[in-house]
Amino acid sequence: KKIFLALIVICTVSLLLHHGGHFTNMEAFRFGCSHQYPGSKPKHTNIVFLKTHKTASTTMQNILFRFAERNNLMVALPVQACGHQFCYPRSFSSHFVHLHTLRPNLITNHMRFNKTALQRLMPNDTLYITILREPASMFESLFTYYSRHCMSFRRVPNGSLEAFLAEPFRYYRPQEVESMYARNTLTFDLGGDKDHPSKDLAYAQNFVAEVEKVFSLVMISEYFDESLILLRHLLSWDLEDILYVKLNMRTESSKKRLSPGLPEKIRAWNSIDTYLYEYFNASFWLKLSDLGLDCVAKEVQLLRQVQEKLMRSCFGGKMPLPRPAAEIKNKDLRPWQPSDKVDIVGYDLPVNISHEAQEHCLKYIMPEISYTRILLHSQSLRHRRSYQNR
């Protein structure tokens, strides 16, 4: 049986690569999860993705932007006064949505979650999705990324994470703008109280129960590909819909290594986030088990193989090397740099690939701010044409 499955995998991958990695259905996944056949259900298109901070959410947002464009869907985007986020850290309101993007199918730019406002805005069959990351690694990323923007971090001598965690209340001010980056950021993004006393376990339990009631899928950053397989099954999507290139990455030199004992201090300081993560990491593995771990592993294997084919086709037959922003010639492809202490790398397409490949690959590597601006422009044109026709 294993030999038979292996032959199917090899034949399927060969067929896909022969056709350039483009897909119109889910034939490629039949060998993995045969209980869900292509065409059995229409693709689900009404989605709220709560984009959390430093969790691979920019890569997920890019997947959703491209899905929306391929399927002619409307994406709710922020008004100009909000920038590329929905006036974060204010609680989400429909007033933050650009008029040309109303009656949306999807919403994915950063916001602070407000269930009531979103349920009024979105269709009744909307599915809610978010993503979490292990609190210790996430907090190191937040501390480094927002070192120039968050006053709680700026006060710390020499930008020392150890010093902050030794006496967090010496530097942390709960009411300051951008204090949400310094404590229980996931909890805050999900609409909870980041400063609720950590001893009150009942609050964390009730908060988790509320999140579980609203969100159909809570993805886990450390298992991003497995999360995409769960997403694909939840939404009845194809393989093409979940292909991606990693975005918004730091260089290794921009990362701080956590010294012994520091992860425990981070989890204690971010106790509600820790409770959230541990609960949903456990439920995540239950969902994978329900789908079938063998099935998921096979789909992940195929996803990665086709992904490599995609990247080689986009980058002249080679795997892409992320570049510093200053070296990227196309300004639309330069990622935002939070400070001179953090290097966020991006990509530039080689000049020797075909025009068709350029068109196909460009959106895979486009940073959030550029993609939001271009998507707003195209949807505004669509809105004006619709208005003129009426």
Automatic annotation (TrEMBL):
The positions making up the signal sequence are 1-23
Under the heading SUPFAM superfamilies, the entry gives: P-loop containing nucleoside triphosphate hydrolases (SSF52540)
Q: InterPro entries of this UniProt entry?
A: Gal-3-0_sulfotransfrase (IPR009729), P-loop_NTPase (IPR027417)
Q: Give the record's keywords alphabetically.
A: Glycoprotein, Golgi apparatus, Membrane, Signal, Signal-anchor, Transferase, Transmembrane, Transmembrane helix
**Gene3D superfamilies noted in UniProt:** P-loop containing nucleotide triphosphate hydrolases
Give me the Gene Ontology terms describing cellular component: Golgi membrane
Q: Does the keyword Transferase apply?
A: yes
Q: How does it sit in the membrane?
A: Single-pass type II membrane protein
> Where is it located?
Golgi apparatus membrane
- UniProt KW Transferase keyword: yes
Could you state one GO biological process linked to this protein? glycolipid biosynthetic process
The Gene Ontology terms for molecular function here are:
galactosylceramide sulfotransferase activity
Identify its protein family.
Answer: Belongs to the galactose-3-O-sulfotransferase family.
Family annotation (PANTHER family): GALACTOSE-3-O-SULFOTRANSFERASE (PTHR14647), GALACTOSE-3-O-SULFOTRANSFERASE 3 (PTHR14647:SF83)
The name this protein goes by in its record? Uncharacterized protein
Organism of provenance = Xiphophorus couchianus (Monterrey platyfish)
